[in-house]
Design a protein that fits this description.
two-stranded antiparallel sheet; two-stranded antiparallel ribbon; mainly alpha
Length: 345
């Protein structure tokens, strides 16, 4: 009979121990939705490349501290991981981030977040082209629904706009951003097993800073100005800390506890949270085309938006939790048994 206060292996945790991973997985898209809101607010206050540079400088410092706390030292990935990490830096840091902020000059935060929700389907096609991943009927149908949903949104529910190629510039920029984020997602898969997700994100962050610097300098040299209002300062602080570092930590904590498959559905909360904040805080209208297109995208992603790992691969921790246990993050290990999100002995 187990001693009082202990829990038998394999039994479900209770109370906060079971609720905390789910709260973290809800918190991550909540933080990401705030990036869409503040990105819209900051559109006239901070130029997009300059905002991206400031954001990733602060985020790099936060991630550095997180790496030191969680792993005890600054770990360097294996040589084979540097190529994918460089792709992550070029796509997610140097281009995806500023493109999102540029698109928010032209479209609302709700529309931008709905288009970004199509990223998993882009990742499926890229994985098919680069890694030969099998495209099942479910994934194919999900992809068609997602493409249809994006078409409804960018056409504002008017098919004639698609046929006339009359698309809003902001929608096209956001589609490009979603495609680049999908490239980064697929590149991150090739880092698995060679570096922890936290370490890979930290190294991609600092590696992307020199790529952003010339564009930010060009932006300011052309006369773009920064307007440091109180709201702008709060917005810059928010996008630098919450969606860049804390959301990542919360997301990977939740994935490590309940598994990637169960966690994936929480991604669909991003456009929902963004819509709520945009309507309440920014007064953005929610059109029927956005509602219908969003439903098609989320349905398509739920149906076919999961990218499989190698056969037998499971989520397991890179090391035993230490003083920074709340930063414990998963890596992919082949044929390693996992119990309740933890590596078994």
């Amino acid at each position: 009979m187990p001693a009082r206060g202990t829990r038998q292996a394999g039994t479900a945790p209770g109370g906060w121990e079971s609720a905390w991973p789910h709260l973290c997985l809800m918190g991550a898209p909540l933080f990401w939705s705030g990036n869409m809101i503040f990105g819209r607010v900051l559109a006239g206050a901070v130029p997009p490349f300059t905002l991206s540079l400031i954001r990733w400088i602060v985020a790099t410092l936060v991630l550095f501290l997180a790496v030191r706390l969680a792993e005890g030292r600054t770990t360097w990935p294996a040589r084979a991981a540097w190529g994918p990490i460089a792709v992550m830096a070029a796509t997610s840091v140097a281009t995806f981030t500023p493109l999102v902020y540029i698109s928010l000059h032209f479209v609302g935060s709700v529309e931008a977040s709905l288009i970004q929700s199509s990223t998993p389907v882009f990742a499926l096609f890229i994985a098919r082209l680069t890694a030969g991943e099998r495209l099942t009927w479910g994934k194919g149908l999900g992809s068609l629904l997602t493409i249809l949903g994006v078409a409804v949104i960018v056409s504002h529910g008017e098919p004639a706009r698609l046929l006339a190629l009359h698309w809003d510039l902001g929608d096209l920029i956001m589609l490009l951003a979603a495609l680049l984020w999908a490239v980064s997602t697929v590149a991150a898969r090739h880092v698995a097993g060679r570096a922890t997700p936290l370490s890979a994100t930290f190294h991609s962050a600092w590696l992307g800073l020199p790529m952003l610097l010339p564009a930010a300098a060009w932006e300011l040299a052309r006369g773009a100005s920064i307007h440091p209002t109180p709201v702008a300062l709060v917005g810059v602080a928010y996008v630098s800390i919450f969606p860049s570092a804390l959301a990542f930590l919360a997301w990977n904590y939740g994935v490590a506890r309940i598994g990637a498959g169960r966690a994936a559905v929480f991604n669909n909360l991003l456009p929902l949270f963004t819509a709520v904040w945009a309507v309440l805080l920014l007064g953005e209208p929610l059109s029927w085309a956005q509602a219908l297109g969003g439903a098609l995208i989320l349905g398509g992603v739920s149906l076919g938006g999961t990218v499989r790992t190698e056969a037998g691969a499971t989520l397991a921790p890179a090391r035993r939790p230490g003083p920074g246990a709340f930063l414990w993050l998963p890596v992919v290990k082949a044929n390693q048994p996992v119990q309740n999100g933890r590596e078994t002995d």
